[in-house]
C-alpha cells in the first residue's frame, strides 16, 4: 500500500507541485482520511452537480422521443418512449428530492441513483433494440443508444472524487455493458463487444484521473481557505462551519459537544509595550503550544485578534474541565517580558446547557468568558460557575 501511494503521488500529485504533499496521497485514494470540513464542502458540491445533471437529463431525455417516433418502427418507438418517460420521472424526482446537508453518504446515494437510472435505461433499451434488424437512418439512430455507457463514464470527470469512489461509480456502466452482452450471448460479436468494453475501461481511467486531479485542487484550496494565515489554526469562518457540523451530529446522535471561548488577558499591553510583531509572535507560540497539548479530536480556531475558540467533540462538561485544567497547569506560554501568559475562558456544553442551536452554544460560551474577565481573569467559567457568579 505504501509503494502504491508513493507511485500514485509521483504520477498524479506531481501535477500540483508545492500545493499537495506526499501525505495527501491517501486522501486521494480513499475519503476516510478527509477532515470533516473538506468532506462537508465536497458533499455539497457533489450533490449540487448531481441535481444539475438530473435537471438537464430530465429535460433532454424526453426530447428524443420525437426523433424515435419519426425514425424507428412501431411499437419499438413507443416502447422506447415509455422508457424515456420513466427515466424522466426518475430524474425529476432525483432533482427535487436531493437537498445538500453536508453528508457524504447522501452525496454518494445521489450519485449512485444518477448513474443507475441511465444504466438501467441502457440495459432495457438494448434488449428492446436487439429484437429488430434496423438499417439506414433507423440503424444510425439505434446505434446511438450504444454510446450511453461511454457518456456516463465520461461524465464522471466533472465530480471531485477519490480513486476508490471513481471505481465504485464506474461499475454500473461497465456492468450494464457486460450484462447486455451476456443476455445477447448468441448474437454477440466478441471483437466488437470486448473492444467497446476496453474503450469504456480507458474512458473510466481518464475520468478517474480528472476526478482525483479536481479533488487535489479542492484540497489545496480548502487548506488555504480554512487556516488563519498568522497562527496556522483554523479560521473563524471554518470554525463556524465545523461547529455547525458538530452541532448536527450532537443533536442527531446525542453525543456531547463542548465549546470553549478563550480570550488572552491584557493582550493589548503586549502590542503597546513591545510592538505588534511581538504580539504576533505571542499568538503563534500560543497556537503551537496548545496544538501540542490538545487531543487529535480537539479543534483550535482563531476567532479574531487575541480570541480563540476551542471545539471539543464528544466531550462532556466534566471532561472539558479536565482538558482545560491540564492546559492551564502546563501553561499557555510566556509574555515578551517573561511573565506567564494567561487567559479568560468560557465553557459551554450542548446537552448540559440545553441550548437550541450552535449560535446559542457559542453565545453562552462567549458570555461566560466575559464573566471570567469580570471575576478577575485567568480562570474558567462553566455551567455551575456561571450560576454561582450570577447569584453572588
TrEMBL record:
Catalytic activity: 2 GTP = 3',3'-c-di-GMP + 2 diphosphate
Pfam family, one: GGDEF
Name of the protein in question: diguanylate cyclase
SUPFAM superfamilies for the chain: Nucleotide cyclase
Keywords: Membrane, Nucleotidyltransferase, Transferase, Transmembrane, Transmembrane helix
Alphabetized InterPro entries for the sequence: Diguanylate_Cyclase, GGDEF_dom, Nucleotide_cyclase, Rev_trsase/Diguanyl_cyclase
Molecular functions (GO terms): diguanylate cyclase activity
CDD domains: GGDEF
Transmembrane region(s): 50-70, 76-95, 107-129, 135-159, 166-185, 197-222
SMART domains: GGDEF (SM00267)
Enzyme class: transferase
EC number(s) reported in the record: 2.7.7.65
Superkingdom to which the source organism belongs: Bacteria
Domain GGDEF: 255-385
Species of the source: Vogesella aquatica
Amino acid at each position: 500500500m505504501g509503494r502504491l501511494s508513493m507511485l500514485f503521488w509521483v504520477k498524479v500529485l506531481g501535477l500540483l507541485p508545492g500545493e499537495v504533499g506526499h501525505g495527501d496521497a491517501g486522501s486521494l485514494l480513499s475519503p476516510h482520511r478527509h477532515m470533516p470540513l473538506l468532506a462537508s464542502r465536497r458533499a455539497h458540491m457533489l450533490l449540487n452537480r448531481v441535481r444539475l445533471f438530473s435537471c438537464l437529463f430530465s429535460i433532454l431525455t424526453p426530447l428524443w422521443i420525437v426523433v424515435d417516433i419519426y425514425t424507428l418502427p412501431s411499437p419499438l418507438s413507443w416502447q422506447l418512449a415509455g422508457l424515456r418517460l420513466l427515466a424522466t420521472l426518475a430524474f425529476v424526482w432525483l432533482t427535487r428530492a436531493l437537498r445538500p446537508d453536508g453528508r457524504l453518504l447522501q452525496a454518494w446515494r445521489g450519485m449512485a441513483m444518477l448513474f443507475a437510472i441511465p444504466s438501467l435505461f441502457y440495459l432495457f433499451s438494448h434488449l428492446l433494440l436487439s429484437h429488430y434488424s434496423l438499417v439506414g437512418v433507423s440503424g444510425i439512430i439505434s446505434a446511438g443508444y450504444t454510446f450511453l455507457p461511454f457518456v456516463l463514464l465520461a461524465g464522471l470527470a466533472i465530480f471531485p472524487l477519490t480513486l476508490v469512489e471513481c471505481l465504485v461509480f464506474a461499475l454500473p456502466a461497465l456492468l450494464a455493458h457486460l450484462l447486455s452482452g451476456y443476455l445477447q450471448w448468441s448474437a454477440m460479436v466478441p471483437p466488437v463487444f470486448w473492444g467497446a468494453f476496453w474503450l469504456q475501461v480507458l474512458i473510466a481511467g481518464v475520468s478517474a484521473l480528472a476526478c482525483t486531479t479536481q479533488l487535489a485542487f479542492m484540497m489545496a484550496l480548502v487548506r488555504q481557505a480554512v487556516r488563519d494565515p498568522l497562527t496556522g489554526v483554523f479560521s473563524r469562518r471554518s470554525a463556524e462551519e465545523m461547529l455547525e457540523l458538530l452541532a448536527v451530529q450532537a443533536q442527531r446522535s446525542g453525543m456531547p459537544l463542548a465549546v470553549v471561548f478563550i480570550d488572552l488577558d491584557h493582550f493589548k499591553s503586549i502590542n503597546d509595550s513591545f510592538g505588534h510583531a511581538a504580539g504576533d509572535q505571542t499568538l503563534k507560540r500560543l497556537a503551537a503550544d496548545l496544538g501540542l497539548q490538545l487531543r487529535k479530536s480537539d479543534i483550535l480556531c482563531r476567532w479574531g485578534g487575541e480570541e480563540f475558540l476551542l471545539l471539543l467533540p464528544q466531550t462532556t462538561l466534566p471532561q472539558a474541565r479536565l482538558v482545560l485544567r491540564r492546559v492551564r497547569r502546563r501553561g499557555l506560554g510566556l509574555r515578551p517580558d517573561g511573565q506567564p501568559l494567561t487567559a479568560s475562558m468560557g465553557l459551554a456544553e450542548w446537552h448540559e446547557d440545553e441550548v437550541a442551536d450552535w449560535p446559542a452554544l457559542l453565545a453562552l460560551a462567549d458570555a461566560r468568558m466575559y464573566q471570567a474577565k469580570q471575576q478577575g481573569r485567568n480562570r474558567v467559567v462553566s455551567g455551575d460557575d456561571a450560576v454561582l457568579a450570577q447569584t453572588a
